[in-house]
Amino acid sequence: MTSLDDVARAAGVSTATASRALSGRGRISAATRARVRAAAEALGYVASATASSLASGRAQNIGVVVPIMDRWFFASVLDGIATRLAPRGYDLTLYNLTDDPDQRRRLFDTSLRRGRVDGVIVLSVALTDDEIAALGGLGRPVLGLGVPRGGLPALRVDDTAVGRAATEHLLGLGHRRIAHIGQSVTTDAAGTPGRTPDVDIPTRRRRGFEAAMADAGAPAAVFVPADFTVAGGHDAAARLLDGDEPPTAIFAASDEMAYGVLTAARERDVHVPRDLSVIGVDGHDLGGLFELTTIDQFPHAQGERAAEAMLAMLGDQAAAGEGAAASDADSPRRTEASEPALPFSLVVRGTTAPPRG
Amino acid sequence: MTSLDDVARAAGVSTATASRALSGRGRISAATRARVRAAAEALGYVASATASSLASGRAQNIGVVVPIMDRWFFASVLDGIATRLAPRGYDLTLYNLTDDPDQRRRLFDTSLRRGRVDGVIVLSVALTDDEIAALGGLGRPVLGLGVPRGGLPALRVDDTAVGRAATEHLLGLGHRRIAHIGQSVTTDAAGTPGRTPDVDIPTRRRRGFEAAMADAGAPAAVFVPADFTVAGGHDAAARLLDGDEPPTAIFAASDEMAYGVLTAARERDVHVPRDLSVIGVDGHDLGGLFELTTIDQFPHAQGERAAEAMLAMLGDQAAAGEGAAASDADSPRRTEASEPALPFSLVVRGTTAPPRG
DNA sequence: CTGAAAGCGCTTACAG
DNA sequence: CTGAAAGCGCTTACAG
């Protein structure tokens, strides 16, 4: 491995000058810079990330905490983040958040604290208060995406509005007997019971559903708790469809749950959308295949936005260190955590239609 | 941030001793070790990864090169890798391989060479010779998974056997007019034309298909090139079904392509499996929803295996450095790159049946 | 088993 | 604009 000293020697300058020429920090004459860069190029020099990090305190690396990364939604967000980080020269290290308490503790108490990352983006629906506190104690920018509100600067879609939009689409078609399949939130992903109500995504979608139903004077809104999976959606729909008064429309809290609903309907020869309308949430990439009506929340774009926001937070931090020039209140680069809610959009396809009769 | 010096001071030992006590390297009295660990615990000490890496040369970090991470298959492999790395204390940094030549060059010539990773796992179907050479020049273990053969130690399934197994399942049901939808390989993912034939996955699956057809004395095997996507499968199937002699069975080179085939069939009122049998490859998580018959290749397990193999390669390297005690030939930890092929398994569901009549 | 010292390869005040 | 020097926070021969 050729080192910076090799480059400096080849260019006939000191190591310090070589460093400045290559990094662009500090004043350097154009001639010297060119000479050093040529030498670096000729020698195939690449700066050691660890040495550079240790000396500068900048890791040029963002940590991303993800639960279940083989779920399309998270993979898509991840891809969005990576898309924006790479061109800025930042690496992305992945931290998988499982349900295993020991593993979680190790993640928050050790892995994230090893100084390997400049900031952390957390994509998780369920964190304990201790975990949020641990993130705060990192002394680095932390940004949530899709995390419960409170405790963490975060980017989020207005999930109450999402629930309302989905429900109003069905109401607008003339449905009255509408059921919502969502996640029961008496326990979180880690099995920790008793989270504050009304703060997380499933709960907010449900609130939006209930509010829309109430506003429309529709009969008691039916809610069925289920896992956020195809199987969860399937089983919940089966119960509904086999019940006394099956709904004419189902609002599933995710597209994958909606796929399960479609399967349950097919098994029972309940025709969609003639006998049953179905709407999901996410904008899953296979939604077109199923002709699924959904609320797209653009996960890839969410990832891109999160990456941009993180980069801005790091920039702010750097700027703050540089002096008082940039006043925080008016700075265009100020933390985007207080940004307007992320966009979502109703995509009407073939699984929703007016009820029969 | 509390440093190792703080811990050493608190425990009343030298920094060197504190380091040994915490890392477990070198001989330490049990009493000293306990004292140091207690101090570290009390102070909430976590070693700086960058300092440790710089001093030891071990990054405790594996780089994973992935194309399109929001494709289920890759996300699943990635999850498998992460699953095995975390408990061993290794971080995982993600390198996204796009089709942009500049970005690719930067990845191989710079990012991967910054000394941030101890080894690299490459999940990609298409690398140029230059890129393979760059990986070789890293001076660190590199392991391919699903990469073309040659040039890189790699774990792989026997894709010729996969193609054969899928085809033989259809032949066994009595089909003779079978079409295969796969990827044309005159150009690779980067648009680089002219790769060596017979080395990559799509080509090998196709060879298996052709061999099985020939062995069975079946008429000229029909091959239709397409993208490895739902849309690709759909369009290719549309052409086949609208042709003069539509096949009675289609073997799609991926489950997502098979979904496209199913859609094309449905659009034409071609009933599956009565009028058309369909088989895919992968073991996609939504396969059950479509009742899709497939060749499962257990991507999550592939990721786990790849991680284990990489860890073994790193272990070997360390062992080699320790002396001649472990002879390479008999070592149980020797590189697993030459391991038996990865397993796959036929999963028969509802989309395949004997042809009519 | 333990400690003093050098070193990993950069970056960055501090002088000039 | 450039250089000498200290330092980032660990690890690891080398002695003892």
Automatic annotation (TrEMBL), chains A, B:
Biased composition (Low complexity): 320-329
Domain HTH lacI-type as annotated: residue spans: 2-56
CDD domains: HTH_LacI, PBP1_LacI_sugar_binding-like
Record's keyword annotation contains NAD: no
Keywords from the UniProt entry: DNA-binding, Transcription, Transcription regulation
Lineage: superkingdom: Bacteria
This protein's record includes keyword Disulfide bond: no
Signal sequence, start to end: none
Region (Disordered): 320-357
Molecular function in Gene Ontology: DNA-binding transcription factor activity; transcription cis-regulatory region binding
Designated name of the protein: Alanine racemase
Origin species: Microbacterium dextranolyticum
